[in-house]
Amino acid sequence: MQRTLKFTVQFSVVGLAVALIFLTSFAHAQAPLVCDASTLFCPASKAHSLPDTLSAIKTPNVSGPVKTRVVTYQVASKGTITVDAGTFAAQVAQTYADPRGWSRLGVTFKQVVSGGQFTVVLAQADSVPTFGSICDTVWSCTVGNNVIINQDRWLYASQTWNQAGGSLRDYRHMVVNHETGHWLGHGHEQCGGAGQSAPIMLQQSINLQGCTFNIWPLQSELWSTTLGIRS
Ligand SMILES: [Zn+2]
User: What is the pTM of this model?
Assistant: First the structure.
């Protein structure tokens, strides 16, 4: 009787273990693959079967940089500002945090109260020229460590932009990325050809030169002399 009980217990334990392994494998196989912008190593979307999963692991689809480097900035204003300062800072932060933006350089932009590496200045249009001779009352500009956003452009985008149907939010992404591009060490770029995506360093506010709107840096623009990052 004791022997039979022992055998039964052993058999039950083994059976339970087998069932658990089976259920665990089944659950794993059915687990959905969740990949988004925050997923650093995302298996290819075709990875539904075991062989595909294994091959995907060998060649991971890197969907974002490993953000190890922090670039600090502060937000300031100049002149009479009608824009809500909190909204301005929040939207600038969104642009910098977007995985399609300059974060692809492998950096994380962090707003600080003071002592930042550069300053994003929201400036009344009439005060923009006070930053330097390359600045005027119409456009935004960057001088030294000041990335200056013209309040009129922040509020109204530009005629070229609006006539082409661009949204105000996209204009704001574009102008922050463009001016920050200057701080990163970029000059202006030309359109690469009719119908191509505009480089972020093309002066899209003024003339698209046949390119289509693009509010994020192109792959070819992912370098920064200021930060010592090569393409
Ligand atoms: Zn520019």
Answer: 0.72
Q: How far is CA 13 from the centre of its chain?
A: 52
> How many residues belong to the chain?
231
For residue 40, the SS3 value is: coil
| Alpha-carbon gap, residue 139 to 70, rounded angstroms | 29
The answer to whether 160 touches 208, Cβ cutoff 8 Å, is yes
Identity at 128, one-letter amino acid code: V
Q: What is the CA(197)–ligand 1 centre distance, in A?
A: 17
Cα of 18 vs centre of ligand 1, distance in Å, is 65
pLDDT, tens only, 11-49:
454 444 444 444 444 444 444 445 454 545 544 443 344
Torsion 159-126-79-110 (CA) sign:
positive
The candidate with the shortest Cα–Cα distance to 226, out of 189, 173, 187, is: 187
Domain coordinates of the chain in residue numbers? Answer: 69-221
Separation of 82 CA from ligand 1 center, angstroms? 24
CATH architecture of residue range(s) 69-221: 3-Layer(aba) Sandwich (3.40)
